[in-house]
Amino acid sequence: MQKGSIIGLMACASALTLSACGKEQPPAPPPPSVGVVTLKTESAPLVNELPGRVAAVETAEVRPQISGVIRRRLFQEGGYVRAGQLLYEIEDSPYRAALAQAQGSLANAQAAIRSTALQAQRYRELVGINAVSRQEFDNAEAAAQQARANVAAQRGAVQAAQVNQNFTRIRAPISGRIGRSLFTPGALVQSGQADALATIQRTDTVYVDITQSAAQLIDLRQAMKAGGVSDAGGARIQLLLPNGSTYPIEGRLQFAEVTVDPTSGAVTLRATFPNPDGLLLPGMYVRARLVEGQRANAILAPQQGISRDARGRATALVVGGENKAEMRQVEVDRAVGDKWIVTKGLKAGDRLIVEGLLNLRPGTLVKPGAPQQVTAGQNGAAGGAQ
């Protein structure tokens, strides 16, 4: 074999060892770029969204105090009425007759009282000279007292008849907006009937009764006692209306019920809201955003950086030493806007990965940088992304 052939075979063998006989190995892929947020501690409001119902501050059912036939209805259904305004008139002829009869009985009793008083006076003089017996004098004295008592009784009957006649004119007990009338002119109504004639509700200010679980209330109070949460003190409340919009006026928390509902395990909180335009209607279902307190030194993590593993546990990926992705198991309390309050697993200074998480595994070398989609200016984010 010639010397040139041997040299060519040796060169080919060397090439097979280095590049698989002429084919070059592809270069290693660069580390994936990820967007990171540098976490820090800050004060965070504890906002809770709870269900609630609107209730009027005053509600009065208009009911008849006597029996009779409605003669007239004197209000516009759905309109505003003032306290003392005449609403219904009931046929009053039977009650006028009863009043006249009571007045006649009073006059008769008043006439009888004079004659019995004079007779008792004469018998008092005659008994002193033994012209009449002591028994006759006692009878005359008793008759005079009976006549005076009869006058008092008849005067009370007149007053009762007058009250009944006044009840034929039914007036509004409170000011407010009146609903539909359940009875029309010509209908017979009775004292003590089950159905009210109409209902008046004062809604210029309304109550919102909010329900909160007793467990949440206990957690909040324990956190306050431990010192990690401060009291919100007369917290303002926002309402979410049934159509999803926010009620423009904030309310104030008034008090919390002192007992827990045994059927639901919830506590009722009552708030007041101004309602100048009548937008809040009694019975309306709403959602209330209640600021219960402030958590000091809280870690707020963007929600994009928190995920769940196959077991449902909250996890996060952070940039660890040597710019390698590191898995953390975390615990979150509640959402504040687009962030989670993290109570365990993350600390100030951690670089949380919020972008580039797809197919990213722990231990992977990454290239951290500022996030492109996640706004993290309030977190001082993107710091330390070199």
Automatic annotation (TrEMBL):
Claim: Signal is one of the keywords in the record: yes
Record's subcellular location: Cell envelope
Residue span(s) of domain Multidrug resistance protein MdtA-like beta-barrel: 205-293
Ranges of residues in domain Multidrug resistance protein MdtA-like C-terminal permuted SH3: 297-357
Domain Multidrug resistance protein MdtA-like alpha-helical hairpin: 99-168
Top-level taxon of the source organism: Bacteria
PROSITE patterns: PROKAR_LIPOPROTEIN
Annotated signal sequence range: 1-20
InterPro entries noted in UniProt: MdtA-like_b-barrel, MdtA-like_BSH, MdtA-like_C, MdtA-like_HH, RND_pump_MFP
Family: Belongs to the membrane fusion protein (MFP) (TC 8.A.1) family.
NCBIfam families, sorted: RND_mfp
Protein name per Swiss-Prot or TrEMBL: Efflux RND transporter periplasmic adaptor subunit
Lineage per the UniProt record: Bacteria, Pseudomonadati, Pseudomonadota, Alphaproteobacteria, Sphingomonadales
